[in-house]
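PROTEIN–LIGAND DATA SHEET

This sheet pairs a single protein chain with one bound small molecule, LHHHV7D2, given as SMILES. Inputs appear in the order they were entered. The predicted three-dimensional arrangement of chain and ligand is reported afterwards as a token string under its own label.
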Amino acid sequence: DGMIEVFGWKQMDFYNRGDRVPNENGNRGDGGGAVGDGYKKRPPSGTIVFPDQLHGLLESDKRSKRTVDKRITSRDDPLINIESRFQNADTNDSYIPYNNVPMGATHYKGRLFVTMPRRRIGIPSTLNYIDLLKDGKQYSPKLHAYPDFETNYLNPNFPANPKRIISVYRTTVDACKRLWFIDTGMLEYPDNRTQVQRPAIWVIDLSNDQVLHRFEIPESIVDTGRGLASIAVDVFERACNEAFAYIPDLLYRQLYVFSLNDNRMWAFSHNYFNFDPLGGDLQIGGQTFRWDDGIFSITLGSYAPDGYRTVYFHPMASNTEFEVDSSVLQNEANAARSDHGNDFRPLGSRGDNHQSTMHSYDQKSGIIFYAEIQRNGIGCWNTNKPFSAQNHGTVAQDAQRMIYPSDLTIDDEDNIWMMTNSMPIFIYSTLDPNVVNFRVWKQNVNEAAKNTVCAP
Ligand SMILES: O=C(O)c1cc2cc(O)c(O)cc2[nH]1
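PREDICTION REPORTED AS:
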């Protein structure tokens, strides 16, 4: 029965906007304390923008404005409204409201984790949460840095620091009450990407907010962290050390597998990780553009008696869904094979214009819910029914209020959570700061499936 709008923001705001920065030897915390608590005032020169870089951006934008006369353009060469990008921006600001575009939304026991990838300057913290008990009744709650502000602090000199998080796209919670995410280690400022430190997998214990594990992804696996925008974790609650993480790389179009037990990672390549050349022509929020994102989202089916499960995946610029068994991925030797035989299989097409960012399998019903970018909503497929276009349903659609669903997750209370963030308008045009641009939606899975072809 559709989705319920729980939060909406014209612009995002934070409890700690980064106006006080951590003393490098200081305490951890959310920045709520007084001077002397391990924080000091941000120095006036403490900025991550250099005037020559700003000038470079302006020059390149002028170039793209001249050469791109039709509004079909790639994400990396956007036709940007430069006035809007630096609207009211003081380059010394640790917080530039306009530049904060939320991406991920994951709920666990009263905290909604909201990510803010650092794709522009002025983002105080990339990993955040909303305290639902305290702020859940507000329509536009402020974000708390997670696990604290210090861990999210971006030092203006960009030193590599394994205690800090640079940029996070999406998070997931596993069966062992742990939060997993990838720090891409990269600032993705237009025309000026900086790999500050190696990309890393982080695992945080949600019972005490302590970091349990950090694994730096070696260069032998991937050059940069740029395409590491999501992570799926395969673990049985009674064997927490035996976890495997599956990581799609939308840029290099590979699938990485990380074994927690062995602290090792290996990489699969396959044609099915590529985008469909026709699937990348998109029209969203009044913008027409072409993207080439490959394998993007991975979700895990129910356990079979042998302890393995179906791993569902899709490229974003595509309408096709694929599957592989977890037994294939968990065996490192399989990654080295040049011919994967029938290990990876296409399930079929969802139909034209059904490109999806994230999807999530509901363990109880066997229904996959997927965020649809061209249809501004949520689709569904009950995996107990054949994969055919007729067996795909529509849970919700709203061309005005659901522009660009950037994340979709299911929590342990059987609720779907979805973020819509108007991303194409931000990239190719200008967001209106006087209207609601970002929304979080929620619905119980059974309610969502009701009155659709996905209902059991
Ligand atoms: O999460 C996404 O939608 C996403 C992240 C990301 C990073 C990147 O460098 C791209 O070129 C595309 C992209 N999509």
